[in-house]
Write a structure and sequence with these properties.
The protein is an alpha/beta fold. It folds into two domains: 97 residues, Winged helix-like DNA-binding domain superfamily/Winged helix DNA-binding domain (Arc Repressor Mutant, subunit A, Orthogonal Bundle); 244 residues, Rossmann fold (3-Layer(aba) Sandwich), CATH 3.40.50.150. Helices cover 48% and strands 16% of the residues. It is built from 14 helices and nine strands. The strands form two sheets. Strands 5-4-3-6-7-9-8 form a seven-stranded mixed sheet, sandwiched between helices. Strands 1-2 form a two-stranded antiparallel sheet. Strand 4, helix 11 and strand 5 form a beta-alpha-beta unit. The chain is globular. The termini are far apart. Bound molecules: S-adenosylmethionine.
Length: 363
């Protein structure tokens, strides 16, 4: 009788093989992000959502793309389990975007929409050489050193949350603010990016005077165009200005959405907010709801914020050469300390989502 001996696989080798698969999966997701951006820009997800099931030829015809590319793009979506494949009556492959996936990839009005972010990838990946240098020297990579796709992509990242929560939950959570704005208060939305929040506030409070400020010229150009498109350009003024010297005083509400941590001198910004606010005004500070304790939380939100901080938020803040470079997950205590140092006396966590914390800060 022959005895077959097998060499046991060392646990470390098995662990390495498993981890290898995990990292290959991450690499696949990193490349797939580009196919998501293409799918959004070319209207491929929308066509599947509205007209599916579609064959590759039908998808190509409806969206005006080459059929050969449609086949390859669909294979990438199929392998990612973003779309499903079925066969029609004569055995031809057709592709379906399930309704739950359409709410993430095809419907910009859904709270779960996430496809808009991926356009930021080209701006982020393009800074790799600058980041290598910055990591070695300790210098930063400024917002303006990125392609304007960063403004659009970051705007899209948070927009669904803003659309669904800002007016229904966040503004109402602030003492007195809805009443003041309904009666015609003044608002400064600082670090407004492409202005989604500015426009939402202006639209909801037609008697309020609303200003949007950002130090990115590209973002302000896009914001002005969006205001024009929304028919709001007579009521909303967008200007290029830094957080520590934007114009105006006596504001009833100053808002910072996901941007204080990007600033090199957040204390100077907070001091300027204090000066520009009415004595009874409110600073609405929205920041990530992620802290250093979440490094090993393993949630998609924590992973996303921590990755973004290493390649965008921290280098942007460092480039401003201020005394602080917070990173995007420095946590409530760090923000509260900045507000206190700037002379604010009242601090309240007004509301939160798994992704964002909304702070009400008052003199
Ligand atoms: C992550 S984006 C958030 C944009 C927008 N508030 C939103 O939530 O969609 C951060 C923004 O902060 C702006 N920013 C960074 N530092 C700034 C500063 N010192 N003054 C004004 N804006 C600044 C950037 O240009 C960028 O638009």
């Amino acid at each position: 009788m022959t005895t077959v001996t097998t060499t046991p696989v060392a646990p470390a080798a098995t662990a390495a093989a498993d981890f290898h698969q995990r990292v290959i999966g991450d690499a696949a997701a990193a490349v797939r992000g580009l196919t998501v951006s293409l799918g959004r820009r070319l209207g491929l997800y929308r066509a599947l959502a509205e007209h599916g099931p579609l064959t590759a030829a039908q998808l190509a015809e409806r969206t005006g793309i080459s059929e050969r590319y449609a086949v390859e793009w669909l294979h990438a979506q199929l392998s990612a389990e973003y779309v499903e494949r079925r066969q029609d009556a004569i055995g031809t492959d057709t592709y379906v975007l399930p309704a739950a996936h359409a709410a993430v990839l095809a419907d910009p009005d859904a709270v779960t929409y996430a496809a808009g972010f991926f356009t930021a990838l080209k701006a982020l990946y393009a800074t790799e050489d600058l980041l290598v240098e910055a990591y070695r020297t300790g210098d930063g990579v400024g917002w303006a050193e990125h392609d304007p796709a960063l403004d659009t992509g970051m705007g899209s990242f948070f927009e669904p949350t803003y659309q669904h929560r800002l007016l229904s939950e966040w503004v109402p959570s602030l003492h007195d603010v809805p009443e003041k704005l309904a009666a015609g208060g003044t608002v400064a939305d600082v670090g407004c990016g492409v202005g989604h929040t500015t426009l939402l506030i202006a639209e909801a409070f037609p008697h309020a005077t609303v200003h949007g400020f950002d130090y990115s010229e590209e973002a302000i150009t896009i914001a002005r165009q969006l205001a024009e498109d929304a028919g709001l350009s007579d009521r909303v003024v967008f200007d290029v200005a830094s957080a520590d010297d934007y114009p105006g005083t006596g504001y009833d509400l100053v808002t910072f959405f996901n941007c204080l941590h990007d600033m090199g001198d957040p204390v100077a910004a907070a001091q300027h907010v204090r000066k520009s606010l009415d004595a009874d005004g409110t600073w609405m500070l929205v920041e990530s709801n992620v802290s250093p304790d979440d490094v090993d939380a393993g949630t998609p939100a924590a992973r996303m914020f921590m990755a973004l901080s290493a390649v965008m938020c921290l280098p942007v803040a460092v480039a401003q050469r201020g005394p602080h470079a917070l990173g995007n997950h420095s946590g409530e205590q760090a923000f509260r300390a900045i507000a206190t140092e700037a002379g604010f006396g009242r601090w309240r966590r007004a509301t939160e989502t798994p992704v964002n914390a909304v702070y009400e800060v008052r003199p």
